[in-house]
Amino acid sequence: MDAKPADFPFPGTAFNVEDNRLHLVHSAQERLGAVIALISGARESIRMFFYMIDPDQTGQEVLDALVAAARRGVAVRVMIDSFGSANTPHSFFNPLVAAGGQYDCFGSQWGIGYFVRNHQKILIADGQHALVGGFNLTDQYFDRKGADSWEDLGLIVSGPAARHLAEYYDEMDALCMHGQVKFHKMRRLTRDWKPGSGTLIWLVGGPTNRISSWGLALKHALADARRLDIVAAYFSPSHAMLRRIAKVTRRKKGSRLVMAGKSDNGATIGAARLLYRYLLKRKARIYEYQPQPLHSKFFVIDDLVFIGSANLDIRSLFINLEIMVRIDDAGFASHMRGLVDALVLQSEEQTPALLQRRDTIWSRFKSGLAYFLVNSVDYSIGRRLKFRLLPKS
Questions:
Q1: What backbone torsions phi and psi does residue 263 show, to the nearest 5 degrees?
Q2: Which of 250, 275, 336, 347 is 20 to 30 A from 164 (CA-CA)?
Q3: Is 44 helix (H, G, I), strand (E, B) or coil?
Q4: What's the confidence (pLDDT) of residue 67?
Q5: What is the reported pTM?
Q6: pLDDT of residue 386
């Protein structure tokens, strides 16, 4: 049994939504503080999955906290994605296993399932406090890489909704034993997941033969939307989803889309830029964030807010396993739009004149290739290409 919820000293901005308490953790200090607080305060159980954990300063600090929790009797269960954390040796987690914790990798067998990544970021303490977001556990996400550090955020959900996410984690855990996950089991998990009902629900994305709960919820939210704000580190949606976004921007002038102006993967910026002209013709206002690489993923549609691990691209909608939380609350939506305001002030607006200056046959070819790579192949392959996918600044 998971413990009765404790009063954790969480950082961030707090909100009450239905029977749940939310803490939005935005700055690097708040996000790392939230991770350590959840692990250090757990009394009964820790369930953790991250796409990427590196054996750097951040990874070591988190591992030390997990080992300490296991030594005081907390049931610690850690999973990582075998592809995302490919640079982290299994031996890195030996101290956790020696302390009584459990560790495993999420990896598909060779075949079509090999191309599916588990891109989720989940940390659940005592079945009562759940952290989700876009950030991984590496130095780059916590202001330890200077100008190359990511802009990101996360959300802690405390209350009944956290217990529902713990149930999902346990289902994922069951199909992840010994690191080999069969493709048909992943599909069934995504297809059969019940998001729940009410003001706050959990949405899952993944490899199904029909639209996932995450994709379906986004589709329905866009259908009658009056106001739209998108912050998307990687933006290359399907043509059907792009048309739905364009219908909103066309009927509501001023809808804002904040994209990455800097990234460790130029292919993702090139893929997004391929779509700018289409959206600008339909009254979208597009901005590229300039101070540092953008990794945040959140969407505000009327009074709905979606936060989690999913980018707005084909991989996140139809291929990778993703976790998103949908919150229906006008006050929370207003606060999130304030974050969009702050990002816009630090961004370069994309205009037809700007597009015209950098538009060439060669740039269009590179953007088209980038779109194919990040959607049909993999982000990391685009990252490893040696030729430039972006023009010189």
A1: -160, 160
A2: 336
A3: coil
A4: 98
A5: 0.90
A6: 33
Q: Up-side HSE of residue 341: CA atoms within 13 Å toward CB?
A: 6
Query: Could you give the CA distance from residue 222 to residue 247 in angstroms, rounded to a whole number?
Result: 9
Q: Count of residues for the chain?
A: 393
Write out the two tokens for 350: 């994309």
pLDDT number for residue 393 = 38
CA 154 to mean position of chain CA atoms: 9
Other beta carbons within 10 Å of 88: 20
Between the CA of residue 378 and those of 17, 115, 196, what are the distances in Å? 37, 8, 31
Tokens standing for 390? 């972006």
Q: Which residue has the tokens 């509501």?
A: 252
Q: What is the pLDDT of residue 62?
A: 98
Rounded to 5 degrees, φ, ψ at 347 are: -120, 160
3-state DSSP assignment of residue 95? helix
Q: In the structure encoding, which two tokens stand for residue 107, read together?
A: 């990896």
Separation CA 245–CA 325 (nearest Å): 20
Helix (H) and strand (E) counts in the chain: 14, 19
Spatial CA neighbour of 322 closest among 243, 232, 221: 232
Cα–Cα distance for residue pair 232/151, rounded to 1 Å: 11
Encoded tokens for 148 = 């190359």
Amino acid (one-letter) located at 24 = L
Strand 45-50 relative to strand 121-125: parallel, antiparallel, unpaired? antiparallel
For residues 190-200, one letter each, b for 16 or more C-beta atoms within 10 angstroms of the residue's C-beta and e for the rest, the string is bbebebbeeeb
C-alpha to C-alpha distances, 291 to 114, 139, 204, 268, 344, nearest whole angstrom: 35, 18, 31, 17, 11
pLDDT at 37: 96
Residue type, 261: G
pLDDT of residue 374: 66
Stretches in the chain below the pLDDT threshold 70: 1-8, 108-115, 177-180, 209, 361-362, 364-367, 370-393
